[in-house]
Write a sequence for this structure.
């Protein structure tokens, strides 16, 4: 016995230009029928939250699937899979496509060469799929945009749930973030962690989907923006605070990557406050109260 609920969508050309669109969403459990062999022209994420079964590739190689797990079905790749007939499994699936799939693949969020991915916990991805299923009612005027936005959220939830990666990133990434604004080269960072440059590149690429240089640069420029917006420090002092001894080089780099010069960014975003900005992330469910008003 099994139960199946599914809905298929047909987003228009304008929705595709948003980057990702949902083509279908489903929730199924039990001893489901075998799928395939088949080949699709779009992506599908199949989240297995309970039970087990198997996945077979085009060469006939069969892999055991044990929940929690993710099946990546990617365009042009033949596949064949099914739950164990005796126990079945509990699955949620999302069909999707769009030009942003190429970027998510480049960043390592979608893994065409890894069709079976163990998860540490399926709760996060399943919650997203559940919201997509609730949004997929035919009278929802936000249907295509709401479900398309949720595909982005699902890819993040699946990345966070991978069993081979810590939810908040590899320890090396945390250490790099802590030291990002120190005047160190990528080679210096690798040596500090007892790694070769190749090992550091692999670790950062696997954890963050980019090179160590880009990872560090993103953190440095983010901090530089905060200092430019929230303080009156000269640009040269901001450059030194984020690891650049040459303010002219910092200004050229900032302008190239941000699209505007540091001075212009400050003119647009500056909002200096006494004592500086808080480093504490506010709780949106418990905002601070205005003095004497009793209101947020």
């Amino acid at each position: 016995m099994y139960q199946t609920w599914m809905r298929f969508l047909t987003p228009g050309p304008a929705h595709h230009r948003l980057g990702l669109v949902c083509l279908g969403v489903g929730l199924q459990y039990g001893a489901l029928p075998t799928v395939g062999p088949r080949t699709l022209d779009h992506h599908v994420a199949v989240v297995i939250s309970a039970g087990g079964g198997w996945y077979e590739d085009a060469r006939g190689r069969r892999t055991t699937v044990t929940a929690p797990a993710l099946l990546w079905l990617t365009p042009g790749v033949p596949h064949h899979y099914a739950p164990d007939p005796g126990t079945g499994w509990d699955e949620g699936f999302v069909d999707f496509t769009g030009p942003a799939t190429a970027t998510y693949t480049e960043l390592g969020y979608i893994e065409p060469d890894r069709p079976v991915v163990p998860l540490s916990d399926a709760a996060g991805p399943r919650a997203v799929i559940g919201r997509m299923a609730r949004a997929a009612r035919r009278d929802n005027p936000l249907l295509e945009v709401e479900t398309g936005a949720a595909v982005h959220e699902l890819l993040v939830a699946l990345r966070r749930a991978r069993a081979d990666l810590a939810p908040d990133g590899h320890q090396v990434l945390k250490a790099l973030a802590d030291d990002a604004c120190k005047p160190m080269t990528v080679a210096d960072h690798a040596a500090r962690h007892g790694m070769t440059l190749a090992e550091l590149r692999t670790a950062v690429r696997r954890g963050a989907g980019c090179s160590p240089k880009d990872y560090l640069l993103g953190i440095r420029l983010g901090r530089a923006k905060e200092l430019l917006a929230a303080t009156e420090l000269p640009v040269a002092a901001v450059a030194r605070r984020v690891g650049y001894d040459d303010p002219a080089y910092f200004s050229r780099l900032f302008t190239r990557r941000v699209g505007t010069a540091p001075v212009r960014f400050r003119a647009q975003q500056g909002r200096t406050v006494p004592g500086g900005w808080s480093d504490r992330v506010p709780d949106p469910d418990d905002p601070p109260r205005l003095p004497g008003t009793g209101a947020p």
Summary: The mean pLDDT is 89.
